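Memo to structure team: turn this sequence into structure tokens by end of day. - J.P.
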Amino acid sequence: MFKRILVPIDGTPRSQRAVKYAADIARVHGGSLVIYHMSPSYHPPYVVDPYSAAQWLPEAQYFEEAKTESKKLLAKAQKAAAAKRVTAKVEHTFGDTPANAILVAAKKARADSIVMASHGRRGLEKLFLGSETQKVLGKTKLPVLVVR
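Reply from structure team:
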């Protein structure tokens, strides 16, 4: 266990902290990281408002910009892992359901554990926004370390 750890990131300071925790664990156990980022799929508006249409990106431009941003996030996380002397591969996909995408990434990476951040939402905010961490916990048999 802890030989191949999947670390999903979203660009927040909490997810960067999760990378550092995962790197510490991997270093102690002689493991490595797979750092994963999912960008939302492209969804153009159903009704185009002529006043806001100019602000909507064309599909090709959206994908290119999302890939560029993801590369930056993943490079920063990979650098943090390297600073802890841990090797880290990176993975990026597009999707609509982060929890499911994380589980698919874990399976693809043959991860034996997941380290991920929780944003600490509570009450109505959690009810309306949901918790991707909670969804992952409910759908996987892998050990999951939740970093706050």
